[in-house]
Amino acid sequence: MLVQYIRAALRHARYEILADDGSFYGEVPECNGVYANATTLEDCREQLAEVLEEWGFFRVHQHLSLPVIDGIELTVKEVAQCLNSVQSSHRT
Question: pTM surpassing 0.85?
Answer without folding.
Answer: no
